[in-house]
Amino acid sequence: MVKKRIGILTGGGDVPPLNAVIASAKQTSIERNIGLIGFIKGWSGVIENQYIDLSEINFNPLIGGTILKSSRVRLENAFGKVGQAEENIKKLNLEGLIVIGGEDTLSNSFSLPNVPQVLISKTIDNDVGMMNPCDGGINLEEITNYFTLGFPTAARKMASFVSLKEGLRTTAYSHERILVVESMGMHAGWLALSASMGHPDFIIIPEFPLDYDRIKDLIVEKYKKQKNVIIVVAEGARFNNGSYISADEKERDDFGHPRLKGAAETLSKRVKGDIKRHFDTRNVNGVNPSYLYRSGTASDLDLKWANELGREAVNLLSDELEKPVFLTIKNEAREFSIAPYHLSNMKSIKELHRFVDERFYNPKDFSVTELGKKYLAEIIDEIAEDEYGLT
Ligand code: F6P
Fold it and tell me: Which of 104, 125, 127, 201 is labelled catalytic?
């Protein structure tokens, strides 16, 4: 009897727990006596028939990034590519595919509704899921996909980078600086929000257009009291005239997203210019950790769920899954578990696009709500600073 085979791919921005998912899928496929091939560079490997037999490859699951490499390829808009992908999957005689990606990579699965697929979300933007509104707030247990892989690791770094114990607050108070720190996050402010666990003064996110005069006045007020200020700004934040704080609109990916970078630099320069008459502004600066949010090794929470998701994905495909399913993470009674979400009733992954709203964020004072902190506390620990006596 011919041995069954499945495929796996990683697309979009790399995150630290990807190799752990691949390793767990490999281990389970060996246990289930099913072949596992890894497509190279995400969906482009499917289109171009570039793959490796994972049983022949040894790698360290604890190393960040993806041994399968990554790309940002859109199947829908590329003439002939959907047909090519379908044909190659058929020729390779695959039972199905494990697709690991963010919103864009996962959206391609909707172009192949008849290919059995298990979708696993990964993105430091944490924007694939649903907060499921209910009266008077939100029930954390009702959240569809509590977090995306990679977010716990990046969120911890975000908080650490601004904190007093591990990050920028030490130089901010020593030199009486105003620091604007850039967070990643194209459309969603979840990563910027997670900075709250490291106590910045203000957080600016893409979902709420920025009233520049208001933030400038708040910065001046805070500086007068505290003699240092830390502002976190998401790369995808916009002014209230709709324009990005900083974007290179000429450089776009397959999905039409412009190259976003420089929000911290642009905003800090503008603030510097505008508050010159009040203060010595040599110490007003922008900082952009950029790819450091996505780099290095994964946190324990990311690793644990990378393992579980990789195993469950292979089990589902070995048991002859017929239609695409999204493996979400549920939080019940403060215990995470996997909950399959069937995609058959959805038209596009956009229905699972998760934005920050006023339940999680106070746009008036650029802060995170108590509920927002409660949500984040399940994923990362707060970095305590009161023991230092500086607050
Ligand atoms: O989609 C995840 C993400 O990290 C975004 O926050 C960011 O805008 C984007 O990837 C940048 O990706 P790259 O430079 O790899 O195209």
Answer: 125
